[in-house]
Write a structure and sequence with these properties.
about 280 residues, 8 helices, binds nicotinamide-adenine-dinucleotide
């Protein structure tokens, strides 16, 4: 074991949703590389994943881009076969992508949109975890799985988040079940629960929507005691910690990285009335 508990040298990290779009997967892929890991960047945006690979290589790590739609079992199987062939090991899996095809009230939600949301945001996480766990068991050296959840998996957001929040609630429980199942084999499974992050996805999908826009930004800030929305980079420290030897006895944890959002009661306030 290295003296540096956070050192990931010699580890292979598979990061899904890792295209170079300035989102969470992108920040995490580069973060893992900075801490020494080789990185597999998997995404439906193949060109974007290739850019991430170039950035990882510029940091001196090995890297490979793979097209993979995590909701498709055949794509996920192919991803891990390619990882086997190129790296021969999987030490870390980071599940990042989500889908929320339309924001409508639950009574208007189509079954198709429900299935689409869950197939990426929940089933896809399971498919990737299953492939990674099979390899980690065979390697016999343990491993670490990190799911990107959300505060939406713990408390309700309304505003058409229904299937997304249900998926994230499932991700939370998947994290705990897998943690318990595989703790004995040294496979740790944890989740990070972020509050609103200024990713391209959020900017395009939510803040640009005239129904939400700037009013929503102000509303969101009321719920975040640090009084700013998060940046993708804010997740890197927690992710490295959870996937490194620093967290050797940490498993089944749902770690809010939310600027205090879940600590704040809906009737509470992080500013005084006079301010
Ligand atoms: N942005 C936020 O405010 C926020 C808040 C809490 C949690 N999260 C969570 O953080 C994670 C990342 O969010 P983001 O805003 O960075 O997303 P994003 O939309 O910016 O990026 C997601 C990436 O996943 C890829 N992707 C989409 N569907 C895919 C699929 N089926 N298979 C493989 N790749 C796919 C996209 O091409 C993109 O590269 C998600 O799990 C999201 O739920 C985000």
């Amino acid at each position: 074991m290295s003296n540096d508990l956070f050192d990931l040298t010699g580890k292979v990290a598979v990061v899904t949703g890792a295209s170079a779009n300035g989102g969470v997967g992108h920040a995490l892929a580069l973060g893992f590389a900075r801490y020494g890991a080789d990185v597999v960047a998997a995404d439906i945006d193949e060109e974007g994943a290739r850019v991430t690979v170039e950035e990882v290589r510029a940091l001196g790590r090995k890297s490979m881009a793979v097209y993979c739609d995590i909701s498709k079992p055949e794509d996920v199987a192919k991803l891990f076969t390619e990882v086997d062939e190129r790296f021969g090991q999987v030490d870390i899996l980071v599940n990042v992508p989500y889908a929320l095809p339309s924001r409508v009230r639950p009574h208007e939600l189509t079954l198709e949109a429900w299935h689409k949301t869950l197939s990426v945001s929940l089933v896809g996480y399971f498919l990737c975890a299953q492939q990674a766990i099979r390899r980690m068991l065979k390697q016999g050296t343990g491993g670490s799985i990190l799911n990107i959840g959300s505060i939406a998996g713990v408390s309700a957001l309304g505003r058409g988040n229904f299937p997304y929040s249900v998926a994230k609630g499932g991700v939370n429980q998947m994290t705990k079940e897998l943690a318990v199942e595989y703790a004995g084999q040294g496979i740790r499974v944890n989740a990070i629960l972020p509050a609103q992050i200024l990713t391209p996805g959020l900017k395009k999908e939510l803040l640009a929507d005239p129904r939400f826009g700037d009013r929503l930004r102000q509303r969101v800030l009321v719920g975040i005691p640090i009084n700013r929305m998060l940046e993708p980079e804010d997740l890197v420290g927690a992710a490295i910690f959870l996937c490194s030897d620093a967290a050797v006895a940490v498993t089944g944890v749902l770690l809010p990285v939310d600027g205090g959002n879940l600590a704040l009661n809906a009737g509470g306030s992080h500013t005084w009335p006079t301010e």
